[in-house]
Design goal:
Length: 369
């Protein structure tokens, strides 16, 4: 069994490759033809801006409907994904490696001077491969960065739905599984309802597209965010009423902080005079928002994200550390990212950033960090 597992991990099956290929083709077609709001991105250093067709919610609903019809007509097995978890992980990993290699080739061969495509080549291959060379590379008119993060979020939900189907077929469906599935489904649906907010996030506006983002979007998001569901397939977790209420409270508070802070930032970037909690915004140096959640902590959205991650794991109880891999990893990642963000902001805004950090001294969690 160990050898079989390693082979599946190293060599993806043709079925897994086919599933991944069909998924990507569907997303490419749906993202291009289905109606959706055209959202302008932030203004880039060369004064240009990209535009994004935000039809992710419709694309997701149509996909789930098509899969549901396929299952109803016995064309598709509802457990096709959960039965091939390791194979799909392998196929997606190797696709990420291939895609990043092609991005490196495109970056080295690009002579564009636009902010989106101008290559940033340090001469350190590992650095350029990991962080990427181009800000917003495209393929056949598709913004790859936006495409990959959409694929990762949808992939996470599809894995969860297939795990849920397996749980129902195996007669192991539990309250914990229902809680986990509900929280994740609400999170993913909410993401696509507010998909336009993604256009003003650090990943989109500042990170170049390299292995870090490609692997993070396509492999890490769907396959590690779903660990709790896989764990609940073979392990029981009985929650008390008090534990269930506490779990729901953590999810709700996390959602309010995460969505509220991201909404405030997005609206401020669109209109720096928009009211924050019913009051005119406090702005440092005419550039940095210091009102609302952003007056409580400099990265309050990270706090909301961490609480949401914790709420996905709490249904599993405390008998094993495995379901807590995701929130533990996310804590380390966000602290690392927060340090990188702070360094970039200090370099970009200089005295304005110093003034802002004095006004808002807490990084993520007030009075703790």
């Amino acid at each position: 069994m160990d050898l079989e597992f390693l082979l599946q991990l190293a060599i993806p099956s043709w079925e897994a490759v086919a599933i991944l290929f069909i998924f990507f083709v569907y997303l490419a077609i749906a993202g291009s033809v289905l109606p959706g709001r055209i959202i302008p991105g932030v203004i880039l250093p060369d004064r240009t801006r990209l535009h994004y067709r935000c039809n992710g919610l419709l694309s997701l609903l149509v996909l789930v409907a098509l899969l549901g019809i396929g299952v109803k007509m016995n064309y598709i097995s509802p457990t096709a994904i959960s039965d091939r978890g390791v194979e799909l992980l392998s196929a997606t990993f190797w696709f990420s490696v291939l895609a990043t290699f092609l991005l490196c080739v495109a970056g080295h061969s690009s002579s564009s001077q636009s902010s989106s495509l101008k290559p940033c080549i340090t001469g350190n291959f590992i650095h350029d491969w990991w962080f990427g060379m181009q800000l917003n590379p495209h393929f056949l008119g598709i913004d790859l960065k936006f495409f990959f993060v959409r694929a990762g979020m949808m992939g996470w939900l599809l894995i969860n739905l297939s795990v849920l189907a397996r749980s129902v077929l195996d007669a192991t469906l539990s309250q914990s599984m229902i809680l986990y599935q509900t929280f994740c489904a609400l999170y993913v649906l909410d993401y696509f309802v507010h998909e336009e907010y993604m256009t003003s996030t650090w990943d989109i506006i500042a990170e170049r597209l390299g292995f870090m983002l490609v692997f993070g979007d396509l492999v890490w998001i769907p396959f590690t965010f779903s660990i709790q569901g896989w764990w609940l397939l073979t392990n029981k977790s009985e929650l008390t009423t008090a534990a269930t209420i506490a779990n729901c409270s953590v999810f709700l508070i996390g959602y309010l902080v995460f969505r509220g802070s991201n909404k405030q930032k997005h609206m401020f970037k669109k209109n720096n005079k928009a009211l924050i909690w019913g009051r005119p915004p406090k702005v440092v140096g005419g550039k940095l928002l210091a009102s609302g959640y952003w007056g409580i902590a400099r990265h309050c959205n990270y706090l909301g994200d961490l609480l949401l991650a914790l709420s996905f794991s709490l249904p599993c109880g405390i008998s094993s550390p495995i379901p807590y891999f995701y929130p533990t990893y996310l804590l380390l990642l966000l602290i690392w990212r927060e340090r990188r963000d702070e360094a970039r902001c200090a370099e970009k805004y200089k005295d304005i950033w110093a003034e802002y950090t004095k006004l808002v001294p807490w990084r993520i969690l007030p009075y703790v960090y």
